[in-house]
Amino acid sequence: MLTIIAAAAENNALGKDNDLVWHLPDDFKRFKSLTTGHYIIMGRKTFESFPKPLPNRTHIIITRQKNYTVPENCIVVSSLKEAIAKCPKDEENFIIGGGEIYKQSITIADKIELTRVHTSIEADTFFPEFDSKDWQLIAEEFHSKDEKHLYDFTYLTYCRNEN
Q1: Which domain does 57 fall in, by range?
Q2: Taking a C-beta distance cutoff of 8 angstroms, is the pair 54, 35 a contact?
Q3: Burial letters for 9-18: b for 16+ Cβ neighbours within 10 Å, e otherwise?
Q4: Residues 6+ apart with CB under 8 A from 138
Q5: 0.90 exceeded by the pTM?
Q6: Tell me, what CATH number does 145's domain have?
Q7: Which residues neighbour 67 within 8 Å (Cβ) at sequence distance 6 or greater?
Q8: 3-class secondary-structure state, position 84
């Protein structure tokens, strides 16, 4: 199963200057609990935005750069198709960004775990538009802003409709 996981504003903003545009500790915890123990697929810039590889996950980094070197437990590929081929077929595998990788995977993913951040914000990277008729919202959980979270946000889980 291929699952896209992202946090996007109401204007689909994801990030700016290769960084997130908000700090949502509860969303980080959710991301960690969903992706730990799984393969995570990302573009090179997303990988480079981490201080070090995320623990207890196998990283697959998509890049056009030849001879791109990565730490142990990281796999380098040159395309999304190649990345998916490296993942276990009988497990949930996650697409974690960035914008271009989301755009390439939105038509083939089975599931979307989207944290909708209730603001519109300036960004240079955006989550792709997706047709709601292709997806069924199966879970929704609202969280109010508080002392640790500057914005209200909602966890949305979509599964692809069987057409």
Answers
A1: 2-160
A2: yes
A3: beebbbbeee
A4: 157, 158, 159
A5: yes
A6: 3.40.430.10
A7: none
A8: helix
Q: Which long-range contacts (CB under 8 A, 24 or more apart) does 73-77 make?
A: 74/47
The tens-digit pLDDT sequence of the chain (163 residues) is: 999 999 999 999 999 998 888 999 999 999 999 999 999 999 999 999 999 999 999 999 999 998 999 988 899 999 999 999 999 999 999 999 999 999 999 999 999 999 999 999 999 999 999 988 999 999 999 999 999 999 999 999 999 997 6
Calpha distance 28→2 (Å, rounded): 20
Of 89, 92, 91, 161, nearest to 132 by C-alpha is: 161
Tell me which residue has tokens 């909708």.
116
Number of folded domains in the chain? Answer: 1
